[in-house]
Amino acid sequence: MKFITIKKRTLCAVLMILVTICSVVGVCYAVRATSLPKPNRTIVIDAGHGGRDGGTVGKTTGVSESKLNLDYALELKNLCQQFGFEVVLTRSSMDGLYDESASNKKKSEMEKRRQIINNSGADLMISLHMNSFPLSSASGAQVFYAKGSSLGFELAKSVQNALSQNFENARDYVSVGDYFVLNYSTVPAALVECGFLSNPEEEKLLQTKQYRQEFCYSVLYGIISYFDM
Ligand SMILES: [Zn+2]
């Protein structure tokens, strides 16, 4: 695959083996056996948008960002759970987080998202989104953190490093992002723009199971690296 290097295959193979070990013989044994950090941690995975807010739309296939965000969130959830992490999802269906009776649904949705994240008692939060840009050539994963959050910066850096090692077009730097879920999260948080739905090639890649799995393995690796600091 064009965007994927040999390094990724090595990394993904190691993680796939670890996850398989975890699911077969139990997480505790696997953790002792591999001397990786004890995964008694809780992670909030936030699938962006939902309900009447579909986010951006794929230029070629018309896929909605909210659907892909959910697909990636569920994939990452499974991997994290197989590794032994506790997982809290902000949403697990295509429904929006807002109260249907609310007059301001955006405000209602944001408040609900904030409550789930900040009441979770989690160690970190990963918010998943898909990007869009007027130039169709723009591509690659970008990770953002809230201005002034040193732990958010470290988390974003760990995830971005894992992605840039495995996907040639991923950024090799992190950026401050002025996003509600980052600014109002009381737990260390990073927002991952997985790729561009305005890029026809990436739009198709993002919808393949293999790409989704490899991408989420990389995010999991970034999370593990963050805990191992
Ligand atoms: Zn989005």
Walkthrough of the structure:
The chain is globular. By secondary structure, the chain is of the alpha/beta class. It has helices spanning 6-25, 27-34, 65-82, 105-118, 150-166, 180-183, 200-206, 209-227, and strands at 42-47, 86-89, 124-131, 142-145, 175-176, 189-196. The protein has a single domain (6-227), classed as Aminopeptidase (3-Layer(aba) Sandwich), CATH 3.40.630. β4 (142-145), α5 and β5 form a beta-alpha-beta unit. Strands 2-1-3-6-4-5 form a 6-stranded mixed β-sheet, with helices on both faces. It is built from 8 helices and 6 strands; from the N terminus they run ααβαβαββαβαβαα. The model is unreliable at 1-6 and 21-35 (pLDDT under 50). α1 packs across α2. Bound molecules: zinc ion. The site of zinc ion has 5 residues, from loops.
Keywords:
binds zinc ion, disordered N terminus, Aminopeptidase, 14% strand, 229 residues, alpha/beta
Radius of gyration: 17 Å
Mean of pLDDT? 88
Treating each run of at least 4 consecutive H or I residues as one helix, how many helices? 8
**What's the β-strand tally?**
6
User: What does the overall shape look like?
Assistant: globular
The ligands found in this model are:
zinc ion
Strand content: 5-15%
Q: What structural category do the secondary elements indicate?
A: alpha/beta
Biggest beta-sheet profile: 6 strands, mixed
Low-confidence stretches: 1-6, 21-35
Order of helices and strands: HHEHEHEEHEHEHH
